[in-house]
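Field: COMPLEX_INPUT
Field: COMPONENT_COUNT = four
Field: RESIDUE_TOTAL = 658
Field: MODE = joint
Values follow.
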Amino acid sequence: MANIQEVAQKAGVSVATVSRVLNNNSTVSPSTRLKVENAIKELNYEPSMLGRNLRNSESRLLLVLIPSISNPFYTEIINGIQNTAIAHHYNILLCETNSNPEREDIYFNMVKNKLADGVISMDPTVNMQKLIELAENHSIILCSEYDESNVIPYVSIDNELAAYHAVKHLIKIGNEKIALINSDEKFLYARQRRSGYERALAEFNLPLRKEWIYNTTQLDFQDGVQAMRMLLKLKEKPSAIFAVSDTLAIGALKEMNASGLKAPDDIAVVGFDNISFSNMTNPTLTTVAQPMYKMGCTAATMLINSIHENKVESILLDHELIIRESTMG
Amino acid sequence: MANIQEVAQKAGVSVATVSRVLNNNSTVSPSTRLKVENAIKELNYEPSMLGRNLRNSESRLLLVLIPSISNPFYTEIINGIQNTAIAHHYNILLCETNSNPEREDIYFNMVKNKLADGVISMDPTVNMQKLIELAENHSIILCSEYDESNVIPYVSIDNELAAYHAVKHLIKIGNEKIALINSDEKFLYARQRRSGYERALAEFNLPLRKEWIYNTTQLDFQDGVQAMRMLLKLKEKPSAIFAVSDTLAIGALKEMNASGLKAPDDIAVVGFDNISFSNMTNPTLTTVAQPMYKMGCTAATMLINSIHENKVESILLDHELIIRESTMG
DNA sequence: CATAGTAATGTAATCGATTACAAAATAAAT
DNA sequence: ATTTATTTTGTAATCGATTACATTACTATG
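Field: COMPLEX_OUTPUT
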């Protein structure tokens, strides 16, 4: 691959002139511009981003941290991020951390090393301490997951309110014994959603029974299966279930099926996230939809603003309850 | 962020010495090494990859092209790629092309621009012409998808044989009227799987009826729903279905459910890919599993070998038929 | 025609690292 | 003590671009 020197030589001009043509900056006479353009074509020249980035000390690359690409929840968010980034001439680098701190470090280093201009983190297991440290010198946005200290700008939804709405819906359709399948409450969203669940119960004077709250370690289908298995063993079984993730809810439905139970007649189920599978289950799953695409766009816009040294404010977007068969009689 | 000059100054040595400590290359005396290491710590210095990469003209970044991260099929492959890459001190850049040629161009340019050292393409819609052109000067591996011309090394499975096995299984359990839900046959794998389907039918002297072959445009659930809807409208309905993707098969199951039909009693169904959700459906889905993790590892190993100028041969890995409820009486 | 003013191009420093080669410091041998 | 060999360190070129500043080539004006 040719470099700028060779192009300059072939065109019979200096490297500066070639660079000017490349960036169509200052005034280059039409005739020399043509000469340079021809030389570029002939040599099949492509400017090296390494050289350019080193000089400009920017990479126009954005890091997007996700714990696992297998979680369909991230799909639309990433689309939003990507479209927005590309519109601003940035590219994104999808980084799957698998919640592995070492892998996380690799990506943090890319930012420190100027190989990326900023980070959007969607990893709830991210080392917040390190991230905050990184945020002192670099642009970082939290998306969907965030930190209460509000040191790092975030975009998310009101998890407490969303959970409240979901549970209220279950109550409205006649349920009084409502279980919660929650993830590990070390995560902020898990604590917030539990709090919304509790608020709804309290508001209608329904009992809050701790055996109806099951915490999973992961968010896989299998965890939902396991949770439901436990709940069905109870003497007093719940009549409805709010799961904080569609994957858990789908696992729960699967286990109900295996036990010959039907939603919503035997047990009504509400999930969270509106992943594409949630419309493929039998019955289809009632769920809370987050404005994922918009969330992605917003996160990207915030990050790019932050990179350009603009002040950035955290944002909470609206959610929506999508009622399907698993809560419709 | 400090640079190597400042470290050198603080340590009272030359930049060369600092660089030597960084790469713990040649012999640096223990005492100066200590001085340098202290300076590095004090200044919180991290070497700039831009400078290093420019000088070494490598980025140690691998591009992984996928059409869409929403397809769960890629999950394990990517894990394999990532683990192998990291073991060799490479990082991967996940690139979602959305089958958009412009986006594809962006990523191709990153390679031409030395911002990435090589590419693993898993995008069946990739512009093969351009890719082959790129392969003249750069390291490229095709994974799962490939090109018959064999100009670019690939790792895949024997699609014809896998389809043959799947259909033979349907025949063995007593089906004679077997439909094929195939994707667009512009894709090589689609042609190969159809060919395996036809071979199995021919071997058992079963009729090959063109109304039992349905081609979808995409691989979404909805396409499977649509396909099944058409097949159920036929005067003579098939008794079994081989779908070339689990997503299609799951859509088909969904539509059967909606019509009050049960697998396998009314219609047996076999999918392809063994995505995690295929074990969550009701009934669970019989499917052809590809050794996805291994495929990813192999692809990464091949690419890294190729980057290091080693000769690389294409490889076909073994598949496995996983029999579940959708074909078990 | 001389000269000022503007447009076009070139020169060379710079970004932050690596490394061949040169030079200095130290150790070993006579 | 001098020479030689070896270890350690420094100097400066290099990777491929951008850009401030200098210089040259035009144009216009009196």
